[in-house]
Amino acid sequence: MRVTEKCGGCGMCVMTAPLYFQLVDGYSQARHSEVEPDDAVLAAAELCPMSAIEVVDADTGAEVTPTP
Q1: Which residues of 15-38 are buried (b: 16+ CB within 10 A; e: fewer)?
Q2: How far apart are CA 30 and CA 20, in angstroms?
Q3: End-to-end alpha-carbon separation of the chain, Å?
Q4: Quick check: 21 and 13 in contact, CB under 8 A?
Q5: What DSSP state is assigned to residue 1?
Q6: What is the tens place of the pLDDT at every residue in 6-38?
Q7: Does the global pTM surpass 0.85?
Q8: pLDDT of 68 over the 70 cut
Q9: Would you state the pLDDT for residue 67?
Q10: DSSP codes joined into one string, 2-68
């Protein structure tokens, strides 16, 4: 997973999945690039108002998050 440059720094991902995201200099940053499947990560991606969180399946490379 990764946070793209579209991040506006609203912090929704940090509130939704604090184990996976943090704010650095006012913008979200993933704590780890690879994580085990977790509903909190998917919820954060879906709730992001800027669609700045990308989640892909490590085995297939297919995007898991909804596209805008």
Answers
A1: ebbeebbeeeeeebebeeeebeee
A2: 6
A3: 16
A4: yes
A5: -
A6: 999 999 999 999 999 999 999 999 999 899 889
A7: yes
A8: no
A9: 56
A10: EE-TT-----HHHHH-TTTEEEETTEEEES-SS----HHHHHHHHH-TT--EE-B-TTT--B-SPP-
